[in-house]
Amino acid sequence: MNSGTFDNLQRLLPEFYKALGETLVMVGVSATFAVVAGGALGILLFASARGQVFARPGLNAVLNWLVSYMRAFPFVILMIVLMPLTRAIVGTSFGPLAASVSLSIAASFYFARLVEQNLNEVPKGVIEAAQAMGATPLTIIFKVLVNEARAGLILSVTILIIAILGESAAAGLIGGGGIGDLGIRYGHQRYMKDVMAAVVSLLSVIVILVQSIGNRLSKHLDKR
């Protein structure tokens, strides 16, 4: 790198700090909402399937269609469609909090499918043993299924956070801010290759760090 490159990065350092903060807000808010709402939806998807503890085939078919439809919805289009809802919730359609509304909704349906898959991997014998001991459906779900699937669920949360981080870059297209937006505005639109390289490097470090923490925690919780 030449001195001009370092000058660019040094001059934009406050922008990097601001963008990093905006990205952390978007990822933090969206991931928290998705884990709670998407986790509940994923459990309902699993439990309402035929042969499960709360079998409701009709409800399950509707939920499966809804989750599949929302997952296939292009995120940039979803942000535009949800602008009126975003304004109603946060008072504006711009900024990291506004972008978090669309991110939260998209991430919830994504995480719901991951949770359903994790619960489907729990051996049926574990469920049958709990039923034989007289456990209630809620006990089976939260004390047996979730406990057995915890290592996989941690990995799913890791995947979720990384996916949100990637989608947050697209949020810059409607003024959501963040690291991705910084790369678009300076690295792409102003042809500052050094800034783009710094943005990509920063995002890569964050992804590697999140994945490493998730892998380690999952391995610690996996008692198999």
UniProtKB/TrEMBL annotation:
ABC transmembrane type-1 domain segment(s): 20-214
InterPro entries assigned to the protein according to its UniProt record, in alphabetical order: AA_ABC_Transporter_Permease, MetI-like, MetI-like_sf
CDD domains for this protein: TM_PBP2 (cd06261)
Domain of life: Bacteria
PROSITE patterns: ABC_TM1 (PS50928)
Keyword vocabulary terms for this entry: Cell membrane, Membrane, Transmembrane, Transmembrane helix, Transport
Topological category with respect to the lipid bilayer: Multi-pass membrane protein
SUPFAM superfamilies (UniProt xref): MetI-like (SSF161098)
Chief location: membrane
Record's subcellular location: Cell membrane
Protein name: ABC transporter permease
